[in-house]
Structure formats: C-alpha cells, structure tokens
C-alpha cells in the first residue's frame, strides 16, 4: 500500500512538472497573443481562470522585455474590447472563441 502511494505521488509530481515545462516551451509571440486575449476577455466578462493559469505558468521563463510587450498587448486588447462598434465587437468575439481557446487548459 505504501509503495502505491509513493508511486501515485511521484506520478502527480511529474505531471505538474511536465505542464510547467510545456508552458516554458511556448513562444514569445504566443505568450503576447495570450496576454491580448486576457485583455479582451477581462472586458467581456468571460471566465479567465484557465487563461490566467496558462499565462502564469508561461511567464516564469520570460525576459522582462517580453513581459512588457505582453502587458502592452493586454492593455491594447482591453482598450479595443471597450468599443461600441458592432463589427469590431463581433471580430473580437470570434477571436475569443477561436485563437484564444488555444491558451486555455
């Protein structure tokens, strides 16, 4: 019984480490795009829990200049999402339901 518990704990630890390594393999461009998605989602009242976790894991190995660009992209996404233009809102909704889904869970 004790061996099974140890093996399950080791497997869980490896799964967590594997997901952290997968986030570290993300390109800077993808990280910046995910930040833009976070900005858009924050205005549209979409659930950002998965996106926040993804960004947190992916930010650990980022250079400060990439972090700054990601913050700029998030601010730009937030500003763009505050539009009253129906066409732009539709385009942003498509972006949230399409490319931004890649950064969840």
From TrEMBL:
Residues 1-22 form the signal peptide. Residues 75-88 have a biased composition (Basic and acidic residues). Keywords: Signal. Residues 69-88 are annotated as: Disordered. This is Secreted protein. It comes from Phenylobacterium glaciei.
């Amino acid at each position: 019984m004790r061996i099974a518990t140890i093996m399950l704990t080791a497997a869980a630890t490896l799964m967590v480490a594997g997901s952290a390594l997968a986030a570290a393999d993300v390109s800077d461009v993808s990280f910046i795009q995910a930040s833009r998605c976070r900005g858009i989602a924050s205005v549209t009242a979409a659930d950002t829990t998965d996106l926040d976790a993804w960004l947190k894991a992916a930010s650990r190995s980022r250079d400060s200049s990439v972090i700054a660009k990601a913050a700029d992209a998030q601010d730009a996404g937030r500003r763009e999402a505050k539009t009253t233009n129906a066409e732009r809102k539709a385009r942003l909704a498509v972006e949230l339901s399409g490319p931004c889904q890649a950064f969840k869970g």
